[in-house]
Amino acid sequence: MNSPHQISLDDWEIRYHRLKAGGLNEPWYGGPLSRHAGRGDKRLLSLRFDNSPPALRLWNFLLTEEERLHQARAAGGKIVGAMKDLGTAAVMAFSLPNVTAFYPDGAWWVPCIMEQGTGDLEVADALGIDESFCPVRAMLGAFVRGAHFPRPDLLVCSVGATCDDFSAIAQRLSSLGYPILWWEAPHRRRAEAGEAAVDLPGGLAAPAAQVRFVRRQLELVRAGLEELTDRKLDDALLAEGIAQANQFRRLLGELRRLAYTRVPCPLGALEMLVAEMLAIHFCSDRAEAIVVIGQLLDEVRRRSALGLGVLDECAVPVFWVNPVADLKVMNILEECGGRLCGSEFLFSHALDEIPADIEPLEALARTALADPMVGPASDRAERICRECRRFGAKAVVISRIPGASHCATESDIIADMVRNRLDLPTVEIEVPPICDADAPGIRTRLEALIESARQRT
Ligand code: SF4
């Protein structure tokens, strides 16, 4: 039982009490995972989890975010809801003492985790945001119901080069009386001949004029945070905030390198998806997120050194594009004989280190412009091809999100480039928030993909 395994929630119950009896040391948010299912997170009953204490801590950290936000409020802190940019505004907010940032967009996963038993989607329906929108519409229901997170003291939202879904939902939120500090990210383009260009994280580039524009927009965010806290958010504070974010990103980068390349696979796809999600806003506690990811990395290093893993050695390395609305599909990939060997979950700019050798706001502007969602799908496809090579992918899954408008043709652009440049088999699947009814079809398509990849080796 101590060797790496994937276990059910029931198995975790037994293991948890054994670990406790053996002296397991836990933070305040620790406890058996089963209690979350008892409070409504019913999807946990369908998942298979890594059996290590660091994975237990990771899940408990993820599933106690709401408590953490209420605690921060009760302690007199300010809460900032950062919407849409996924990785930049949160770094700025965390740079101020006594400020906690979170992404209300994270409600995206509530219909999955709580198996649609919350009423959030029904409220969104009633407000005209129906299922023709992507699962982020759950955020609207969450705001109106006052559920899943406290009402933020400040809401900021990036606009401009954003998807129709988010734009419509954020505007609806504003019309309901939620004041929003808007800032704009332009559609990233290549510099024209003779136009000054700036390198961005992630191997991208943009015209210097666009970087200057975003920097001015982030000045608005800085001013909003200063007004909220009555404290100056100077460059020294921002630089320290960037240094902390980079510490997390370096740990996550090493975790990805090991988990995606070592044979046997030292950590399953489900925990890797959760670990990557922490990069967006540190799950509302930056210092603890660094501890959680550090412990997970220690476990993966230990397993790698001992040649231990959670999957069969012949599991086929699969690169995954887009987050899944139903977490269970990460288990299904592995049950079909695959393993995750890389991912592009729409927020790759939150994984890249923020430049630390230039002015902080300039560095954050460059990071914001490196968002895969503000540029052309071909830039995403280029990065996916690079990462497929880096991590030795043998197949690529492009997972579509029901109702998502972020790019009507991105799947074709990505699949074509992967096939043309790498000659890898690809498949597109659509994953709804609860995939049980679609699971047989998803399995068939993943099994066919993996079989096809095996035949090529
Ligand atoms: S349409 Fe795409 S980018 Fe927009 S909120 Fe939905 S999943 Fe995110």
Protein architecture, described:
With 457 residues, the chain is an alpha/beta fold. The chain has a domain at 69-234: Rossmann fold (3-Layer(aba) Sandwich), CATH 3.40.50. It has helices at residues 9-21, 34-38, 53-63, 65-74, 89-94, 110-113, 120-126, 138-145, 164-175, 208-229, 235-261, 269-281, 286-306, 328-335, 360-369, 377-391, 410-422, 439-456, and strands at 6-7, 49-50, 78-83, 99-102, 154-160, 181-185, 197-200, 204-207, 316-321, 338-344, 395-400, 426-430. The strands form four sheets. It has a four-stranded parallel β-sheet. Helix 7 crosses helix 8, helix 10 crosses helix 15 and helix 11 packs antiparallel against helix 12 (269-281). The longest helix is centred in the middle third of the chain and has 27 residues, at 235-261. It binds iron/sulfur cluster. Residues 134, 136, 163, 165-166, 346, 373, 401, 404-406 line the site of iron/sulfur cluster.
